[in-house]
Design goal:
153 residues, 48% helix
Length: 153
Amino acid sequence: MSSKTRIIVLHMKEVVYTIAFLILAVLLGILIYFMFGPGKSQTTSAAGEGLYTPGIYRSSLTLNKNTFDVEVTVDQNNIQSIELVNLSESTTAMFPLVKPSLESLASQIVDSQSLDDLKYSTDRKYTSQLLISAIEDALKKAENHVSSPPAEQ
């Protein structure tokens, strides 16, 4: 007989490792496709259409060597919240109008989505103006800077 029979010995551990690596390679390929595939450019262009870049933006304030932040949270088109962060108890005790002034302003801004026509009492005038200035700075940081296409000649 001229037939040459070959016997191949496969170890089960090698077969399992090979199958596991093939599955991981397929999953990696699928992940790369969804991350960089054709749908990626559509979501990028859609994100550029909002008023703001979603996120949390801060503006620092200093009163008598006490520094604290005004934190503004925005999504694509809306102001979600405005809060004071890093406000120490000593600053709160020395400047008791800061927190209630911001709460009043924040509720007006979130409701109207604008810094125009804000109402505050005359005894909180300077505190409110200082806070509005800090909120404006944070919103400027949040503005979506979409570059416009070049003008045709």
